[in-house]
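step=encode ok
step=design start
structure_in=
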């Protein structure tokens, strides 16, 4: 099934912000025996369904806060093993959306950022995939920290993701 064309106004704004290379260490939380490199294809806050993404945090506390929110949202507390991973990533073209004015210009206000309805954020993610960005640095909806949504949309290159260490929680 072909994806609909992305929102032209969002595309113009997002492209206008410019993108830059980004590399460094990030954190990722997983449950059970899920690999830390496992991509989300079902859709989440920033990626619409069928747009592959990997969600990582710029600091350990943010990764754990994101996972804790997921646990608290469950009617029965999951008992699966929890692991925190430190990853090294290298991305070629990442857009920084940590500025709230930038987000607002893309249709993502504080309410949309923290909502369990992800349409506004997914519209931005769809455009990021269309523009073949490697990722977006975004505010966490669950802590004062920031996340990177790694996109796997470039046909000519795959973002580098290396596991540095893993620790059971």
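sequence_out=
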């Amino acid at each position: 099934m072909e994806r609909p064309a992305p929102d032209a106004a969002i595309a113009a704004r997002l492209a206008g912000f410019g993108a830059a290379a980004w590399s460094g260490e990030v954190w990722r939380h997983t449950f059970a025996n899920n690999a830390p490199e496992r991509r989300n294809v079902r859709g989440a806050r920033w990626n619409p369904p069928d747009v592959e993404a990997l969600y990582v945090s710029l600091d350990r506390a943010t990764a754990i806060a994101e996972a804790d929110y997921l646990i608290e949202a469950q009617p029965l507390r999951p008992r699966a093993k929890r692991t925190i991973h430190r990853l090294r990533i290298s991305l070629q073209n990442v857009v920084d959306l940590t500025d709230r004015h930038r987000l607002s210009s893309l249709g993502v206000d504080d309410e949309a950022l923290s909502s369990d309805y992800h349409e506004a954020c997914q519209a931005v993610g769809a455009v990021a995939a269309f523009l073949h960005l490697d990722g977006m640095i975004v505010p966490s909806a669950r802590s004062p920290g920031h996340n990177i949504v790694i996109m796997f949309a470039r046909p000519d290159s795959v973002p580098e993701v290396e596991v540095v260490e893993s620790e059971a929680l």
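step=design ok
step=annotate ok -> The mean pLDDT is 91.
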